[in-house]
């Protein structure tokens, strides 16, 4: 396999941090993303923010502290307080006549954006005060009032590369996702799919869903689907139904460390019927993801041997594209040049 030799985690990109519902007002949440401990909170207006999860005093995780009503985090050790910009606002033990300017003390802050029920964090190549994101936030193909519902959050026991390749891999579907409600191994067909580059990835051009997937049959009317992938690890499926309805299904991958990746799955539908069917749909989605996790647990065992691996033919073409994009992305960051997508429109064939 043409393996990737560079830094595992791409920088200067947005990563899914949390579903909006996981960050309640008045609570702090600690997360490890790309081996960095990060604390999340909401300010007095409810806007999310993220700081490095260390108190500058003695390094205690701020995520062990309290979120006060004014949106500042109070450290659990000596009660220092930090606002949403990471600026120290109070050192309770200093005597009242102290001349110390506590606002000179700062916790590094990450850019954060909340949209459509999801919270994203920008991982810079270097933490510095006032980071300006160089990349636009991912396009979720949703309007302002359209909110994604969170289906599942699960830890894959593999690094970001293996997790991404699992996400974009067409050939496992026949063997991993065999279910009465989806498809059986007996219904193999030759598939032909057209691909085109998008700014940081590629898309499978709009097409009618595969005839051997029963899951789509419940959707009546004119159905077509378009599937997008972009780095660092987001897959988005846009299903349009009839003239004005759509379903958006998003899977995001966020690296935790060199051996674990968090997968989140989100779902939006403009069809009223999906609200009625939400619980069965959610459990269907979870079953699906559970099948992937099942095979990934086996994969993680196999990888303990550090075996040589292969990417073979058209079914593995997208995995090769992913590595090409990574390489180009890193080169552009290192040289300070604009990223150019190296991919071209292509047609791929496989049997599933
Ligand atoms: S370690 Fe945080 S206030 Fe002392
Ligand atoms: Fe899968």
What does this structure look like?
The protein is of the alpha+beta class. The protein has two domains: 13-123, Rieske [2Fe-2S] iron-sulphur domain (Rieske Iron-sulfur Protein), CATH 2.102.10.10; 149-351, Naphthalene 1,2-dioxygenase Alpha Subunit, Chain A, domain 1 (Alpha-Beta Complex), CATH 3.90.380. The protein is 18% helix and 32% strand. It has five helices and 19 strands. Helix 1 (160-168) crosses helix 5 (317-335). The two termini are 22 Å apart. The model has no long low-confidence stretch (mean pLDDT 93). It binds FE2/S2 (inorganic) cluster and fe (ii) ion. FE2/S2 (inorganic) cluster binds at residues 55, 57-58, 60, 75, 77-80.
Short overview:
The protein has 352 residues and is an alpha+beta fold. Helix content is 18%, strand content 32%. It has two domains: 13-123, Rieske Iron-sulfur Protein; 149-351, Naphthalene 1,2-dioxygenase Alpha Subunit, Chain A, domain 1 (Alpha-Beta Complex), CATH 3.90.380.10.
